[in-house]
Amino acid sequence: SDDLVRAVHRFMQYSDAARRMNVRANADNAEDAARARRMGAQGVGLCRTEHMFLGDRRQLVERLILADTDKEREESLAALLPLQRDDFIGIFEAMDGLPVTVRLLDPPLHEFLPDITELSVRVAVAESRGEKHENDLRLLQAVHRLHEQNPMLGLRGVRLGLVVPGLFTMQVRAIAQAAAERLRAGGRPCPEIMIPLVGTVQELEIIREESLRVLREVGEEYGVTLNYPVGTMIELPRAALTAGQIAENAEFFSFGTNDLTQTVWGFSRDDVEASFFSAYLEKGVFGVSPFESLDVDGVGRLIRIAVEEGRRARPGIKLGVCGEHGGDPASVHFFHEAGLDYVSCSPFRVPVARLESGRAAARG
Ligand code: PEP
Ligand code: MG
Fold it and tell me: Whose CA is nearest to atom 5 of ligand 1?
């Protein structure tokens, strides 16, 4: 079996030597990042920060949602800052010397808010027992206020960053502090700051300027230079169509093909597989779900437009993909052909992405 392992290794080396695209992995914590690296990932193409607000940090998030005053909000953010910083330190350490694209918070709000039924029951029970429940009641009112009919089209990504003061700057500060700490320890952190769900260049401009200001401030505090790229996801049709304008304010694009597929088709990512996709597959509307294998004619066309416009506006702009399609063989061939610089996928799909991008390059 040693012979077999050596043969596979040699085969991967040939493939790696042939390929033009880099292969990165999507990883949200230090363990996944380390695993991705062992699989041959050349960086983290998507570090989702949503999970960093869940689990035992929910209480802090609830306080943030409930904050009535600037002071209360700032206190909640200040409590989250060191936790986020430590998360990033771990990931930068695991990926030392390799790029780590950190995406600022992009929760569909419903996954992030306390459960409305649970909360209602808690309030009702407390009421029937004549117990104090003022906080739960306020929380329930806030959750009602924030409730959306279509959360996936709602207060997500950059929109949340623009609506909740200090949220994105806290995250950028955590990234900057983590990088500064790593530099002090002799490390080579390479963070890239990525802004999700951008539809217009103005959204990007505001957040980008704030981000660059925070990088400068933290750099001065630590006496180091924190000169890191700020870029955007392209995951809305409007972003793809106005990629030329957007590129003037973005050092890189990462195509979010999950949301791009959802918005190009008008399919709900969360629902379609269960509701009507089986009938569609059966009737031959498509042979494979467009969430699994990239829809080259529709979504792919938008990607080509964005690649062309982006490169025209900013020659040398770095272009990648971080949706699930980044690890799908047929889609990888498309991304190679469209001229992307890298694909990013789940750690366990990294070997497949390496092989397929090697094959795509060998094919010419
Ligand atoms: C995407 O939309 O393709 C993406 C990578 O982001 P998420 O899946 O987190 O929305
Ligand atoms: Mg997305």
Answer: 323
How many whole angstroms separate alpha carbon 129 and alpha carbon 24?
A: 55
**Model confidence over 222-271: pLDDT tens digits?**
999 999 999 999 999 999 999 999 999 999 999 999 999 999 999 988 88
d(CA 202, CA 89): 31
CA 137 to chain centre: 33
Cα(104)–Cα(194) distance, integer angstroms: 6
- Cα–Cα distance measured from residue 64 to residue 80, given in angstroms and rounded to the nearest whole number: 10
Choose among 174, 163, 170: nearest CA to 76: 170
Indicate whether residue 46 lines ligand 1 (CB < 6 A). yes
- Give me the percent of the chain exceeding a pLDDT of 70: 100
pLDDT value of residue 110: 75
- Summarize the chain as % helix, strand, coil (round to 5): 60, 10, 30
Of the candidates 18, 34, 37, 5, the residue with the CA atom closest to the CA atom of residue 350: 37
Choose among 46, 164, 167, 149: nearest CA to 95. Answer: 46
Is residue 28 lining ligand 1, measured as CB closer than 6 Å? Answer: no
Residue whose structure tokens are 């802004």: 195
| Span from the CA of 326 to the centroid of ligand 2 (angstroms) | 13
Identify which of 184, 266, 254 has the alpha carbon closest to the alpha carbon of residue 224. 184
Interface ipTM: 0.99
**Taking the model in full, what pTM does it have?**
0.94
Comparing C-alpha atoms, which of 243, 236, 257 is closest to residue 326?
Answer: 257
Q: Please give the Cα distance from 228 to 92 (Å, whole number).
A: 13
Strand blocks (E) in the chain = 22-26, 44-48, 99-103, 190-195, 230-234, 252-255, 318-321, 342-345
CA of 103 to the centre of ligand 2 (A): 10
Would you list the DSSP string of 80-114?
HHHHHHHHHHHHHHHTTTSEEEEEPP---GGGTSP
